[in-house]
Amino acid sequence: MRSKESRPDRNELARLLNEAGSAYDPEGIEILIEGVLAAPAEVGTSWHVLVADPITAGLADQLEATLGHLRRLTIDNAQLRHDLEAARRITRLDPGRESPQRR
After folding, report:
1. DSSP-based three-state secondary structure for 98
2. DSSP class of residue 96?
3. CB under 8 Å to 59, separation ≥6 — which residues?
4. What is residue 97's three-state secondary structure?
5. 3-state class of 65 per DSSP?
6. Cα(30)–Cα(63) distance, rounded to whole angstroms?
């Protein structure tokens, strides 16, 4: 399963980060968001202050769009790992059956 939604505009994110005087670039934001995804939901948007203070509405929107995109990718990747492990289990139970990768 692949997310049908497009990736947030990294150029726009870079522009907004620069305007806000942030030390982050889009790649750094993605790394920061990996930690945010592991944090309790109660964190909410309080992590935005780590990016820029004050934060503009446009930058906040881009941060949340990037967070949503990476969250969807994380879920999609977890589903792919689950499907692959299920296929491996089936192959172990029925060695004569081809795995989906070898078809």
Report:
1. coil
2. T
3. 13, 16, 17, 19, 20, 22, 48, 51, 52
4. coil
5. helix
6. 9
pLDDT (0 to 100) of residue 94: 63
Are 30 and 42 contacting, i.e. CB atoms less than 8 angstroms apart?
no
Residue 74 to residue 38: CA distance in whole angstroms = 11
Q: What CA–CA distance (Å, rounded) separates 92 from 99?
A: 9
Instruction: Please spell the DSSP secondary structure of 2-48, one letter per residue.
Output: ---SPPP-HHHHHHHHHHTT-S--HHHHHHHHHHHHHS-GGGTTGGG
Rounded CA separation 56/1 (Å): 34
CA-based nearest residue to 62, from 23, 11, 22, 28 = 11
pLDDT digits (tens, 9 = 90+) for 35-56: 999 999 999 999 999 999 999 9
